[in-house]
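hey can u check if this looks right to u? its 85 residues, i copy pasted from the old doc so theres a chance i mangled smth
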Amino acid sequence: MADPLNESGVFPPMVCQMIGVGESTGALDAMLEKIADFYDEEVDQAVENLTSLIEPFMLVFLGVTIGGLVVAMYLPIFKMAGAMG
């Protein structure tokens, strides 16, 4: 199973090697689970890094949006009060 996967070039060499080791030792299920755990942790770390990069931009965007709404609501009130007085 490892040789055709390796020849396809779709999977990383580490995955093919681990599948080969699992085949030769008879513990293919354990190796596949280790591969799945490794990539699960890698995806979780990538999502966490992406979230930490996007978070400051989202905070600035929300601050500007809410600040614009507040100014748009109160500016006419202040103009009316200035015109009356």
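The two ends are 86 Å apart (CA to CA).
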